[in-house]
Write a structure and sequence with these properties.
The protein is built from five helices and seven strands. By secondary structure, it is an alpha+beta fold. It has one domain. Bound molecules: iron/sulfur cluster (2 copies).
C-alpha cells in the first residue's frame, strides 16, 4: 500500500509501465507519481505532448508512450523526482536507467555506484555512463546507469561510496 509505506506496489507500477513492445524500442519515460497532489511541471516540460494535459492540477500524470522520444527533459523538471527514463535497447544484457539526482558530490562518468530499489535496498553496484546537468537554475542532475536488463525496473536510486553487499 503506497500511502502507508511510500513504496509503490506491483499493481501501482503496472498502471504506469509502458507496453513491453515500447520498452524494447528504445528510451521511454516512466512516471512513478501516484498521489493526487497539486503539481504539473511535467506536463509543461514535455514538448512532445507525451505527458498529457491534466484536467485538474491534482490529477496524476498520464502518458502517451507513442509520443515519448526518451529525451529525458522531464526528469529534472519533476520536483518529486518521480520520472525515470529506461532504455532497454542499450545492449542485449544491459539497459540504461536514467535517474534524477540532487545530492553532492555528483557522480562521475565511469564511477561505480551502489544502486537501490524503490525501498532503498541495495541491488548491485553498476557503472555511471553519463551525467547531465538540469541547467543553470536547476540543481537536479540526470545520472545514466548501465544495469543488467533484469534490474532495469528495479533500480531507482543510487548511493555513492561503499559497495553493495555480495559485491
Ligand atoms: S522523455 Fe522527453 S518526450 Fe518522453 S515524456 Fe519526458 S520530456 Fe516527453
Ligand atoms: S512534476 Fe513530478 S511530482 Fe509533479 S505531477 Fe508531474 S510527475 Fe508528479
Amino acid at each position: 500500500m503506497l500511502i502507508k509505506t511510500g513504496v509503490p506496489t506491483v499493481d501501482d507500477l503496472k498502471k504506469v509501465y509502458p507496453p513491453e513492445e515500447r520498452m524494447q524500442q528504445g528510451p521511454v519515460a516512466i512516471i512513478e507519481c501516484f498521489q493526487k497532489i497539486p503539481c504539473n511541471p511535467c506536463t509543461e516540460a514535455c514538448k512532445q505532448g507525451a505527458i498529457l494535459p491534466m484536467a485538474d492540477i491534482n490529477d496524476v500524470p498520464e502518458m502517451d508512450f507513442s509520443k515519448c522520444n526518451g529525451c529525458g527533459v522531464c526528469i529534472s523538471r519533476c520536483p518529486g523526482l518521480a520520472i525515470f527514463v529506461v532504455d532497454r535497447s542499450y545492449s542485449p544484457t544491459e539497459a540504461i536507467v536514467r535517474i534524477p539526482y540532487e545530492f553532492v558530490p555528483v557522480p562521475e562518468v565511469g564511477q561505480k555506484v551502489v544502486c537501490l530499489n524503490r525501498a532503498g535496498e541495495e541491488v548491485g553496484t553498476f557503472e555511471v555512463k553519463k551525467v547531465v546537468s538540469g541547467g543553470k537554475k536547476n540543481m537536479t542532475y540526470t545520472v545514466w546507469i548501465a544495469v543488467p536488463q533484469e534490474l532495469c525496473m528495479e533500480v531507482r536510486n543510487i548511493r555513492l561510496g561503499g559497495v553493495a553487499h555480495g559485491e
